[in-house]
Design a protein that fits this description.
With 240 residues, the chain is an alpha/beta fold. It folds into two domains: 133 residues, Periplasmic binding protein-like II (D-Maltodextrin-Binding Protein, domain 2); 94 residues, D-Maltodextrin-Binding Protein, domain 2 (3-Layer(aba) Sandwich), CATH 3.40.190.10.
């Protein structure tokens, strides 16, 4: 299994103990079968792992899954994640900036996720927007960017994932008051759990049963929270 969240914090080695605990929880219930895997936060490393290791399953950010769909081979969504803080299978991105939003989004937009213009227009902004008017810039860290936007050192706005916006809203810092919401995206699906290729339907059902009940068990709930998840849910209709 691959956990693939391009642009997120942490390294593969840093994340290994946390996802190993997740795998151990599952493996106790599927023996003699076994699930192993790794976490990646870059597009090239994730694609390399998928091509070389041929994982049966993956938990992929919606952006990674959508933008790279033509490089993943046959996939099928089997569950939705329920990410914290809201714990639902539907998420909304928020764009924050200083002052009034420029017309036609003719200003730099910054994101920790490596987004394409096509993804940003379809899922976050407006499907009728001209891609030529959009300026996307990746950043390695959101907090310094937000401070720069607040002070006017940088022009533009930040595309925030739900957890990032939740964190910003709950920061008791004077500089945050200069930032205002420019746009809230339409609802979109959370990160899906997908199966690669043809996986035994009986095994998929067994895995689904374990994951859907995981947050009802204290050990499972603790592991999920370490992964910033409330749990797993049925497939979001936005994926269908």
């Amino acid at each position: 299994m691959i956990f693939w969240y391009p642009g997120e914090a942490g390294t593969t080695s840093d994340a290994q103990p946390t996802i190993d605990a997740f795998f151990d929880y599952i493996n106790k219930q599927i023996a003699p079968d076994k699930i192993l895997g790794k976490y990646f936060n870059s597009v090239p490393d994730g694609l390399k792992f998928i091509n070389r290791s041929k994982p049966r399953f993956g938990i992929l950010s919606l952006a990674a899954y959508t933008i790279n769909s033509n490089k993943l081979g046959k996939t099928s969504v089997i569950l939705s994640t329920l990410p914290l803080p809201h714990g639902t299978a539907t998420e909304q991105y928020v764009i924050v900036g200083k002052g009034a939003r420029p017309a036609n989004w003719n200003t730099p937009l910054y994101s920790k996720q490596p987004l394409t213009k096509e993804f940003a227009i379809k899922y976050i902004l407006n499907p009728n927007l001209n891609p030529q008017s959009l300026i996307l810039n990746p950043v390695s860290s959101i907090l310094p960017l937000l401070k720069d936007l607040s002070s006017g050192t940088k022009q533009g706005a930040a595309i925030l994932q739900p957890i990032e916006y939740y964190t910003l809203k709950n920061m008791n810092q004077p500089w945050t008051s200069a930032l205002v919401v420019w746009h809230t995206s339409p609802p979109m699906s959370s990160a899906p759990l997908v199966a690669f290729g043809d996986v035994n339907p009986a095994f998929i059902q067994k895995l689904k049963d374990i994951l859907l009940k995981m947050n009802q068990v204290p050990e499972g709930k603790e592991i999920l929270e370490s992964l910033r998840l409330k749990g797993f849910g049925d497939i979001n209709p936005l994926h269908q």
